[in-house]
Amino acid sequence: MTDRIKEILNYYKSENPGVLTNLARLLNHGRLGGTGKLVVLPVDQGFEHGPGRSFAPNPDGYDPHYHFRLALDAGCNAYAAPLGFLEAGAADFAGQIPLILKANNHDVLHAEEDPIGGQTASVSDALRLGCVGIGYTIYPGTIHRRLLYEQLRELTLEAKSVGLVVVVWSYARGGDISKQGENALDIIAYNAHIAAQMGANIIKVKLPSDHLELDAAKKVYEENKIPLKSMTDRVRHVIQSAFNGRRIVIFSGGPKRDSDEEIFNDIRAIRDGGGFGSIIGRNSFQRKKEDGIALLNNVMKIYSGDIK
Amino acid sequence: MTDRIKEILNYYKSENPGVLTNLARLLNHGRLGGTGKLVVLPVDQGFEHGPGRSFAPNPDGYDPHYHFRLALDAGCNAYAAPLGFLEAGAADFAGQIPLILKANNHDVLHAEEDPIGGQTASVSDALRLGCVGIGYTIYPGTIHRRLLYEQLRELTLEAKSVGLVVVVWSYARGGDISKQGENALDIIAYNAHIAAQMGANIIKVKLPSDHLELDAAKKVYEENKIPLKSMTDRVRHVIQSAFNGRRIVIFSGGPKRDSDEEIFNDIRAIRDGGGFGSIIGRNSFQRKKEDGIALLNNVMKIYSGDIK
Amino acid sequence: MTDRIKEILNYYKSENPGVLTNLARLLNHGRLGGTGKLVVLPVDQGFEHGPGRSFAPNPDGYDPHYHFRLALDAGCNAYAAPLGFLEAGAADFAGQIPLILKANNHDVLHAEEDPIGGQTASVSDALRLGCVGIGYTIYPGTIHRRLLYEQLRELTLEAKSVGLVVVVWSYARGGDISKQGENALDIIAYNAHIAAQMGANIIKVKLPSDHLELDAAKKVYEENKIPLKSMTDRVRHVIQSAFNGRRIVIFSGGPKRDSDEEIFNDIRAIRDGGGFGSIIGRNSFQRKKEDGIALLNNVMKIYSGDIK
Amino acid sequence: MTDRIKEILNYYKSENPGVLTNLARLLNHGRLGGTGKLVVLPVDQGFEHGPGRSFAPNPDGYDPHYHFRLALDAGCNAYAAPLGFLEAGAADFAGQIPLILKANNHDVLHAEEDPIGGQTASVSDALRLGCVGIGYTIYPGTIHRRLLYEQLRELTLEAKSVGLVVVVWSYARGGDISKQGENALDIIAYNAHIAAQMGANIIKVKLPSDHLELDAAKKVYEENKIPLKSMTDRVRHVIQSAFNGRRIVIFSGGPKRDSDEEIFNDIRAIRDGGGFGSIIGRNSFQRKKEDGIALLNNVMKIYSGDIK
Amino acid sequence: MTDRIKEILNYYKSENPGVLTNLARLLNHGRLGGTGKLVVLPVDQGFEHGPGRSFAPNPDGYDPHYHFRLALDAGCNAYAAPLGFLEAGAADFAGQIPLILKANNHDVLHAEEDPIGGQTASVSDALRLGCVGIGYTIYPGTIHRRLLYEQLRELTLEAKSVGLVVVVWSYARGGDISKQGENALDIIAYNAHIAAQMGANIIKVKLPSDHLELDAAKKVYEENKIPLKSMTDRVRHVIQSAFNGRRIVIFSGGPKRDSDEEIFNDIRAIRDGGGFGSIIGRNSFQRKKEDGIALLNNVMKIYSGDIK
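YS: structure for the whole thing
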């Protein structure tokens, strides 16, 4: 148990030892185990976007075992997926990699400005499948966000009482948020803060752009000269907004990147801005396995400092 | 146990001893302990307005421990916050300051004439975190207020049965209330009365202006010559409206003030009008810690009579 | 919050902040508040031995309010009693002194070698009465101890989940324990250890004599030369047996004392042996109030070091 | 509401207003309404002793309506009976007299040294029948008393939560209590105290003799010269033992009386010793109705002071 | 994940992935991780035999943290203890070593030919403390074994449904089993088989002697010439009896050994007879820490084949 992991666990003193144990399992697994950084493989795109869109670029990904092996072989800290994908491999790969059960999901079969999704798995599922935690997506900014917050609240209380870690994906959406605004710095920081206030142990947000979406926020950001030009500065602001570094925040890619090098620069910004790591889905499983592993390993090396 | 605290507890004879005990803890803690006046530090602005808008003016406020320490060092009666902020410090500061868990919250990511928010914490959370009470915000005047009233009713019943104090933030909003009307005397008095009728033990409203919003009310106020020119008179009317002094009503700032001296004059009006105290958030944590403490201590001195 | 209290709370890191909060309330109340020592007034003798035997020596003690006032005026850390006694004063003295609800009781109307008692109050009662914890008596050594252990287990799980402290009175009894053996050092140490293993936050045992009851234990004590001649040594061994000082152990009088000076010597031994304090019932309420307070205050002065 | 009733209600401040309301109904009904004294008609002898033994002396008593009318016509404060008797008249006499549902009963069809009885009615029954309270009999001193205490505990918690008054019949019995001992002063005082500690609002015991049963108690009674020669003194001691007058204690006849005058002398003793009243069954319904009413009215006149 | 661990997990295909995950955690932790052999540190002797008898030989063992550290430093696969010992360190050592919660315990304060013990912890406790499994002791042969079997059955069903491994300690006792018979080969084999039939995932028995206790068994053993002269043969028979190697069986020392070399010979016999490992309590914590670690490491080296 490294000092850094002890320090991070110390941020979660109000949780019971069960939650701390599963948090430690997550932080201590894989190539980044013990560093306090983490890389998670998430594969819920089949549900969220449809299977063809998700897996045609690398058809091996249709097979649920593929993702267990990818996460394992790449040395990820954890693999996160909906109920079915986990059920399809949890016995086969039992004890080999920490699992996070995505407990709600949304599909694109009905056009909605304000996505809401539905709860598709339970705390009991997470326990019977041997997961270390559950995941849940909220969409702050949507008209139904109240329903999402209330479902998350009940899940969180139950999950923590049985020692499961709670991971919250937080994405602002909805009619009042512009497309550009979904990645705006003020919005991403707000997303992270809301998730933390809801009791999330780990928070997943997108990387922010330098756009500011809300007028009232923009005024304050400008008055207080909050640095936002570099990605590193913006990550730092998001981390600050999630309890000043006392909550684990991990990032997915924001604006589309043209090359792996751009991805690596993002990783450097996360690392240098005090972020805790990445959640990398499409960029890892939509290419050949060896390429996915290569990408993930480069990412891990940047986090561990082996690559600058 | 001072005579005044006994008198106040006596207003709540229908509550069980558990509620009375937590009410006494609140009233007896901090610099104003025993006076029957109270000053509460609330920090839910991160959720309600976004983290940057809330904490950029004094970046120490991003850290949840900061607010525990501010409330403690200033000698506040209690600290009120959403689930995440309390979880981030409840173990570290256990037993040092009475805590109120804000059990619903609202964000500004969706423009709504009729805010509704969602329940973001439970009575079980309040018990496991060692809180003395829960807080809940209602928006009389909004089209969804029925949902709020009904959620509050269930929470209140459960909270009181386990000895928790119920604090209600009551703000009229919605399409039929003008911006000016939100602070109108008749509206604020109405807000306080509805919260009291819902079973609130402690009521939080804004300071009222001398505007009268509702025509039917205006007629009666004028016929009966209800004094409303001075803030002291208006506070007196609000206190009267909340069961004639038999319910604890505390105030936040209403119309924006230009100087601390204006704030202090408000405090004098609350004191002289029979108000029970203040809930002071942004004015205390959006400045440097020593300045926040200085402000709060001046406020407390006005309440205690050490400053006239 | 003194360093010593922080150190003690640190022994209970697996508990939720609610339990820590109530533990802190107990440790910070009264004249010994903050020292890490505690003196508790227990009055369950009316139930356990009958009212006449308990209160005739000082008839003021028939009145339940008397004991609230005695505990308050003497500056005790807490008052512990069965349901009825607490109900008779919990509203009148709400918030004035930490209360511990004795959740099981035994009477002497049926001669039993193996006492068992019954559960006479619930966790819900403790919450509605505003208690900081519940108390429960186990009788290791009795044929029915299994029932007591299992009832305690369920109560403990429920109590801790709502933030209540669990106090266990542990007295070996039953056909295989000699009268002398009930106070034997090996037995008292065993009592303390069992209570700690059951999850007690605070443990109450009798002061031990230098007798050793169990042959198998006697052999080990003699081989390992466990010091047992002085009361201080014996207290030290009991504290060691209760997780080496990581659990709060408080003592009642063991063998009957002839004078207050003998009681004070016991207190010195508890203090010097690392004990956490005393629970003093009959010696405090079976004499006139001013004499009871005088005794308790001398006891507290010994604990605080004001008297050597 | 007389001052005396207010004073009595004040003893029950920890109870919710529902319990206080039903307690007030009881205390304010009938000829003794408002005096703080009460006379209750109990008819559970049919179950406890068999119908013939109970009703043959006055066959009108086989009819459940008879007892409702008797209680009404005599001006009793309440009528207490098992489920069936109440069901047979509760609709007919709805709102005419406070009802107490005897929730457990014992028959004599199986010879037992240690009676235990069974729960024969529920809190739900009490509510649907419009009762002001429930009654429950405990037998301290029996080997199974633990079961009775635990059943009473659960009933009491439930009953009070819905505003019902809890009346406890408390009679020591069992292998270790001599026949004479069942009425001994120390035992009756102990019975009353146990019922009070269990949370009873109203306690029913037998009138005590001057016998002392328990050696340990006898020693203390003699040392402390507790007066016990006159019935008045003995009643005073029982009242003292039930929280020093803070719990309503009512008495049934103890040793068999030869004449009504002896009964009246008992009533005088109850009155002068600070007792709260009587529960008079067989002496009222086992004689002709007008004689029963005459007796009850004389009793009431003694309580009210109309007869010395 | 080694082939041997995969093979072992394959024996438990009927269990859900949660149980398999925790089983894998156990088998993959520590110095023997991945070998399919395991060494567990159990410390329940304080409860079972008393604290002095257990810890006086090495007083560091009074401190609950000592055993966490011992298990960690020696590289054990898991640490098993009652509720209190785990609560005293579960937060401090969260995620550092797999924990097994001993869910029932027995003390020696009442002489019993037929021990029964009591359930002292729950599945909920195991989850909130982050355990991989629960432990439970059955005493086949005792008159109350039915209670134990039924309590185990319920616990097992609940534990497995939430993914916890079930470890059963199985010791024949009771009036019909001779002292010698408690270690007899036919009895130990029977113990192991009963535990396996009850659904245990891991079984703990004593090392068997060459005695045969039951006449009916003896006849068959002799007829079929079951080899029992060497310990290796006897271990092989026990393993056979526990589903022919399809259930993990671990051994504690049987007959008292005079030297570590004798212990090591036992370990060799367990290894060569197909046993899965050892549970070593007193021999590891009743000596100085470095000696305990040295012993455990030699044991592990024998299991891993590093020592022959």
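YS: worth flagging: The first strand of chain C starts at residue 38 and ends at 42.
IM: good catch. Also Residues 241 and 288 of chain C are 37 Å apart (CA to CA).
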